Task: inverse folding
């Protein structure tokens, strides 16, 4: 006696399956590009608002809290006998030789506008504090004359535009920019030091009239570079950059802008009014709160986690649909 066979499960034609997979790949690429553009826009807006708000308050956009590991290269002091970071700052114990603390620089810093370095520090013994830097990552190492470090809590001031600099062992003029910045501390062996705060302050008070806006689109050509070079010595460049190009090309354009004008405040085109308004609001706040990005990253993570959980625990009747969803 023949047993009736189960009805065959209908299958999608191979061509349709291929088209669905191709469509999924194209959609994923489009969404990833849209996400990258949204993140870049949010980053530029947030950075521009924070910089303008700090300048409006008479503060500085270049400040490092050494109680935060993200502000310290490697999260430690190099060549120290021991170091750690806690809520009170970066603690280090000397091995008897000079040790260094690298400051994280997300972009080159204009040392002509921000030419006064303040270091809040506490030392258990007398020693020295010097600054070393490179104007480009592959440039020569430059250092200033060491300052005397006394015992106890103190704030040392280093005038970066003062003479006494040496680059690669030769006398040099004051640096105009920094792509790498380090504190070099010399103390007797076993002496402890705590570094709390480092900041670069402008020598002259910020004047809103010194801002000059210029609109640029990637790629940054010779004409755009020349325009920035004309603005940079006399004004604080405010660059409105178009975001229509690919994100990689836009990031390259931003790097070229920073190379010519490290102090440039870069923001997406069309956001100037909103950025200035937000900066004024933040500058007038008694205690400015950390700004959240304009793109809700937590919502994206929650949506992705929910989608992955749905794919994982759903009961699938077709392995092909399950593979496509995964």
Result:
């Amino acid at each position: 006696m023949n047993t009736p066979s189960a009805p065959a499960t209908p299958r999608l034609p191979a061509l349709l399956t291929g088209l669905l997979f191709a469509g999924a790949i194209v959609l994923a690429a489009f969404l990833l590009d849209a996400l990258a553009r949204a993140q870049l826009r949010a980053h530029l807006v947030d950075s521009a608002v924070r910089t303008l708000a700090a300048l409006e308050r008479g503060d500085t956009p270049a400040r490092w809290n050494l109680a935060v590991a993200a502000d310290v290269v490697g999260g430690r002091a190099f060549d120290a006998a021991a170091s750690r970071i806690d809520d009170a700052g970066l603690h280090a114990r000397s091995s008897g030789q000079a040790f260094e603390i690298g400051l994280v620089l997300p972009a080159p810093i204009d040392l002509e506008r921000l030419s006064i370095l303040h270091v809040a520090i506490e030392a258990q013994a007398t020693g020295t504090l010097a600054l070393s830097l490179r104007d480009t990552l592959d440039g020569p190492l430059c250092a200033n004359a060491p300052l005397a470090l006394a015992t106890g809590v103190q704030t040392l001031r280093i005038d970066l535009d003062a003479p006494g600099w040496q680059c690669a062992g030769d006398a040099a003029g004051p640096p105009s920019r920094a792509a790498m910045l380090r504190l070099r501390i010399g103390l007797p062996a076993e002496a402890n030091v705590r570094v709390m705060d480092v900041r670069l302050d402008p020598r002259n008070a910020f004047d809103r009239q010194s801002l000059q806006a210029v609109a640029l689109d990637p790629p940054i050509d010779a004409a755009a570079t020349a325009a920035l070079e004309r603005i940079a010595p006399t004004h604080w460049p405010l660059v409105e950059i178009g975001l229509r190009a690919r994100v990689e090309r836009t990031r390259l354009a931003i790097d070229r802008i920073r190379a010519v004008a490290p102090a440039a405040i870069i923001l997406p085109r069309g956001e100037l009014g909103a950025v200035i308004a937000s900066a004024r609001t933040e500058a007038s706040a008694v205690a400015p709160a950390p700004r959240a990005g304009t793109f809700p990253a937590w919502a994206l993570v929650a949506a992705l986690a929910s989608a992955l959980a749905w794919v994982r625990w759903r009961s699938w009747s077709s392995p092909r649909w399950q593979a496509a969803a995964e």
